[in-house]
Amino acid sequence: MADRIWELLPDPDPFAANCLSRVVLDHVTSKWGVLVLVALAEEPMRWGQLHRYIDGISEKMLAQTLRTFEADGFVLRDSKGTVPPRVDYSLTPLGRELAEVLIPLVHWVGKNVTRTGVADQAGSAA
Amino acid sequence: MADRIWELLPDPDPFAANCLSRVVLDHVTSKWGVLVLVALAEEPMRWGQLHRYIDGISEKMLAQTLRTFEADGFVLRDSKGTVPPRVDYSLTPLGRELAEVLIPLVHWVGKNVTRTGVADQAGSAA
DNA sequence: CAGTATCCGCCATGATACTG
DNA sequence: CAGTATCATGGCGGATACTG
Predict the structure, then answer these.
(1) In this structure, how many other beta carbons lie within 10 angstroms of the beta carbon of residue A63?
(2) Each residue of B19-43: pLDDT tens digit?
(3) Chain-centroid distance, C-alpha B122
(4) Cis before residue B12, ω within 30 degrees of 0?
(5) Measured from the CB, is B55 under 7 Å from any atom of strand D?
(6) Which candidate, A26, A39, A125, B123, has a CA 20 to 30 Å from the CA of B45?
(7) Which of A27, A42, A117 sits opposite B71 (nearest CB)?
(8) Is the pLDDT of residue A70 over 90?
(9) Considering the entire predicted model, what is its pTM?
(10) What band does B48 get if pLDDT is binned at 50, 70 and 90?
């Protein structure tokens, strides 16, 4: 057993520059990437619902993030083609797998933020 | 049981703007954050070693990322105070907990990058 | 070796206005 | 409602030079 499983694979070593996995990692860790994926993991949502759910995201960034993830195969866009428009967003099976490893991250941060230096600074600043 | 555990907690809901957990999440998902934490989870490293290990990172960004994580309480900086200088970086117990949830993410991406749209585009572009 | 200091480009991000 | 188009900006990130 190698310590680093990616040493066994030529391509997907994220520590090597110009590796494709870096691109995916960049998408996921983009400013709103994690929140969008985790939000959709909780439940499929319409555009407006998602927009309200993720407080602070701009329309442009929501659209951009969703289109990136759609191209990546993580998000499914289902337009009903009605008037007024209704579009549902959900995770693909691939996206659900990804969200599966993202949820523990979000949970951990939420539960442990008070143990971090960020909390100290905010406390002393107040 | 609530679907969203953060609904039970007033502060650490990452879907609310100006939540502290957003700050931590931003640090972790900063351009080099995940790679630095996962690298140090594999083994403690000296500055130069880390610089070579994470291919493509600039000196500025390595320093900046390390200082951020040090302030957050994720990374321990151990300067030997010798000449020539020797500085060892390692994860704190808190940082190790965080890395614990990051490693599955990096592994998943590495293993499944070929199933994503990123791989398709790279394939058709070549 | 392990950084810091400085300069700078540029693109990610955001605000606004508009549309089918 | 669900976006797109356009414009503006600032700060993220990189390159380089320098230092103890």
Answers:
(1) 13
(2) 999 999 999 999 999 999 999 999 9
(3) 26
(4) no
(5) no
(6) A26
(7) A117
(8) yes
(9) 0.91
(10) very high
Looking at residue B120, its pLDDT comes to: 83
Nearest chain B residue (CA) to A108:
B98
Q: Could you read off the pLDDT of B91-119 as tens digits, one per residue?
A: 999 999 999 999 999 999 999 999 999 98
Residues in chain A: 126
Give, to the nearest 10 degrees, the angle between helix A20-28 and helix B93-112: 120
Token output for A73: 């195969």
pLDDT in tens, A1-40: 555 555 444 457 899 998 999 999 999 999 999 999 999 9
Distances from the Cα of A52 to the Cαs of A31, A46, A57, A105, in angstroms? 17, 10, 8, 22
Residue with tokens 């549902």: A88
CA separation for the pair A53, A70 (Å, rounded): 19
Q: Round to whole Å and give the CA distance between B106 and B29.
A: 12
Helix (H) or strand (E) holding B64: helix B59-72
Calculate the angstrom distance between C1' of D12 and CA of B104: 27
pLDDT tens, position by position, A71-104: 999 999 999 999 999 999 999 999 999 999 999 9
Q: Which residue of B has its CA nearest to A2?
A: B42
Cβ within 8 Å, pair B122-A20:
yes
Q: What are the angstrom distances between the C-alpha of A101 and each of A13, A22, A56, B54, B124?
A: 18, 17, 24, 22, 29
- Please check whether residue B6 is in contact with residue B20, taking contact to mean a CB–CB distance below 8 angstroms: no
Chain D positions with any atom < 7 A from a protein CB: 1-6, 12-17, 20
Handedness of CA A45, A46, A52, A57 (dihedral sign): positive
